[in-house]
Structures are given as C-alpha cells and as structure tokens.
Amino acid sequence: MRRPTRRYSILSLLKEARHGHSGWVEAWRKAEPRSSYDVVIVGAGGHGIATAYYLAKLHGIHNVAVLEKGWLGGGNTARNTGIIRSNYLRRESMALYGLSHSLFEHLSQELDFNVMFTPRGLVELAHTRQELAELSRIADANRHFGIKSWMIPTSEVHSLLPSLDQGSHKRFPLLGALYQPRGGFARHDAVAWAYARMASQLGVDIVENCGVESIIADGERIVGVQTSRGRIDAGTIMVAAAGESPPLLAPLGVNLPIEPVTLQAFVSEPLKPFLNPVVMSGAVHGYISQTAKGELVIGGGTDAYPSHSRRGAWPPIEDTVAAMLELFPFLSRVRLMRHWGGSVDITPDRSPLIGPAGPSGLYVNCGWGTGGFKAIPGSGFVTASMLATGKVPPIAVPFGLERFAAGRMIDESAASGVIH
Ligand SMILES: Cc1cc2nc3c(=O)[nH]c(=O)nc-3n(C[C@H](O)[C@H](O)[C@H](O)COP(=O)(O)OP(=O)(O)OC[C@H]3O[C@@H](n4cnc5c(N)ncnc54)[C@H](O)[C@@H]3O)c2cc1C
C-alpha cells in the first residue's frame, strides 16, 4: 500500500521553481469517500489523524477514513502555540503526556518529515508563595514519577533568561521556577501534515470537506455516519471533533462534559534571538517563546465565556500583552503581526476524554482543552490500540467518561490553563 516517498534536493527545488512549481507530488491523496470502512474517525485534527496513522502502521488496519468537515488541521491543531512538556501534576497525566513527549523526541524520523521539535527548555515562573508551593508540589510529583522536571532558584532562572526584568520594584517578584530542560515546542501544522502524509501512504482515506451530521446506531451497536457527502458504514467510529463532539453524541444519549471556550495567540515581528527556553507565568498570566525565525509566539488566558467562535474578545489581548510587558518591559515597542483564536474544548477537570461512549463500537478522543497539541503522538498511539483491540489500554483507562460519575477526576487545573 505504501507509495514511495519522493525526496527533494536543492537542485530539484530549483528545477521545480523554473517549471512554475507544477510537478509537486501531493503530500496526501485527496480521497473521495467510499460507502464503508472498517474504522471511521470524525475530525482530521492531530488526534484523529495520528490515531489513523498508528492504526495502519502498528495494527495493520488500513481500511480507515478520517472525515473532516473543513480542512486537515484547520481546527485547533494548526491554531496552537506548539508547546510540548510532560510536567503535569497527576500520575495519570504524567504517564500519557510523558509517552507523548518521548514520541515527539523521534517524531521527525518516524514520519520522515521535519516537525521542528525544539526542546530548548521550559521555565514556569513562580511569583507568589502559593505558586512556589504549587510548582514545588508538581516538581515532587515529577521526580517520583521519573519526569525530568525540577525547581530552580532565581539565580538559575536569570542565567537561563538574562532578558527577564530583574527589577526589585516588581509587582510580581520572582521566587523560583519549575524547569523542564526537554520541554519546548514543535511546528503544529507540520505535525498534522506529517501524520497525514504517512497515513495516506499507508492507505488511509483523508476526506476533507466532509462533515459528519449524525452517528447512526442500530440498537446497541454503531453502524455508520451520515455525512454531508452521503452515508458511510463502519463498525468502529471514533469522534475526535474537539468542541464539536458533544452535539454528535447527544442524540445517542451521551453527554460529554465539554465547554467550548475561545483561546487566542499572537505572533510578533521577528527580533534577534534573545529567548532560548519557553517562559510561562501563571501569576502574570501569559507565556512566550521565540521561533527560529525570531518571531515571538505569545499566548495567555481563555476568553471569559463559553463560545464556539474563533474570534476572541479584546480584554484577553490587552491582558496578555500587559503580562508580557511585566516580564519583558523592553518589548513595549514590538509590533504584533498576527493574531488568531481557536475554540478549545474544556472539561471540568482539565483532562481529556478517551474511551468508549454509548453504543458498542463508538469511542471518543476529545476534551484536550488548552493543552492537547503536545499529546497528539501519545494519544494517537493509545487510541489506535483501543480501536484495534476493543480494549482500553491501561494508560487510557483513567481518562474514561465514567470518571465524572464515579468522582475520579484527574484535576489538572493547577498544571494546565495558561500553562499550556
Ligand atoms: C490559541 C491556542 C493555543 C494553544 N496552545 C497549545 C500549546 O502550546 N500546546 C498544546 O499542547 N496545546 C495547545 N493548544 C490546544 C491544542 O491546540 C488542542 O488541544 C489540540 O489541537 C486538539 O486537537 P484535536 O485533534 O482534538 O482537535 P482539533 O485540532 O480542533 O480537530 C478537530 C477537528 O474536527 C473537525 N470537526 C468538527 N466537527 C466535525 C464534524 N461534525 N465532522 C467532521 N469533522 C469535524 C474540525 O473541523 C477539526 O478539524 C492551543 C489551542 C489554541 C486555540
């Protein structure tokens, strides 16, 4: 099934330029939907597409369609700020995000595509005693679980971040930081493209502009989906449609506890390199990194009300800019070049939903909120195994929907939110 990968040299790039760029091979096939598949995945975001790749690659299930109502990665996957880390508070989260982080280390080689994984380190600043205590608690949990992340004193923060304002007048004085040296970022859309290209080569159909309107059940079993391009039958269906998952499951009597909220991000004009690690601060409420090109990638808190809109309100923009100036006052005259929003799918405990839902054969992978980009390889790996075997792998069991009824929340509100 696998098509040969075409490689390009500088010479072939120049030749293509001379011929008006007419000879490029499509990265993934523009598939037409067929009437039935073994597995249908709803949503070609990172989680849907990675699951399809691992299904084909590791489990030999190639008769798979990923149905996307818009374009590949057009949801949150290509709208995020690309931050990758695994220093969460709960052991369930550390296991899942830790697996994902380790897969990111070799993802470019695995997918034969440069996803620009850049582990320059990640520093979460503590500005209050309470924050210091909270981050120290996370560092302790990380140490017990074997996640390489620890507290560093202010002197070390300043040597990692010489441009951070050190003034004694500060409203938010620096008390220390949680540091993960292998934290960093990757290029978000490259991750989606890389998985899509490989999945397509392995025979997966990626069908864009094909919205799923409803999920069809026959008694207690799932049998297919009704789409904007007709009915498609499948015995196994996974919904990975982020904040748009709940309305697809509600008619089947499954209520997903997900609230959609707008989250915005910003990119500045390029500057000379001054910022090596990613810097995050819960108290000032913002985070910042600098790309290889020199642009600053900046984010902050979510908008204050539920919304499916991808256009955010003004106050979070002002708050985020103020937060950055609190940390780096010399940025005051830097211009922001771009700004955008995504609608993130927040659960009550800030942890994702992975597992069976409702009629037999139906699964969900959603609720990733503000921090699901970093989880794409790990979640895809785990959910592919779940779909292939019908058994939920131990690492995913705690993330099942039943945790809310049973009161077994995986509360990550201290280690997520603005700390993506
Ligand atoms: C501004 C911003 C910054 C962020 N920063 C970070 C970060 O730094 N690090 C991090 O780890 N995470 C970050 N995130 C969160 C991260 O982007 C998401 O958690 C992650 O992308 C979720 O991936 P997904 O595949 O679940 O959803 P999505 O990428 O949203 O994919 C869902 C797909 O389903 C499709 N869909 C919806 N309904 C239907 C339907 N009925 N039929 C067919 N298709 C449908 C949508 O069009 C979409 O393409 C950020 C998010 C935003 C918005």
Automatic annotation (TrEMBL):
SUPFAM superfamilies: FAD/NAD(P)-binding domain. PROSITE patterns: RHODANESE_3. Residues 39-83 form the Rhodanese domain. It holds the Pfam family DAO. It comes from the Bacteria. Transmembrane segments: none annotated. It catalyses: sarcosine + (6S)-5,6,7,8-tetrahydrofolate + O2 = (6R)-5,10-methylene-5,6,7,8-tetrahydrofolate + glycine + H2O2; sarcosine + O2 + H2O = formaldehyde + glycine + H2O2. Keywords: Cytoplasm, FAD, Flavoprotein, FMN, Nucleotide-binding, Oxidoreductase. Its EC number is 1.5.3.24. This is Sarcosine oxidase subunit beta. It comes from Flaviflagellibacter deserti.
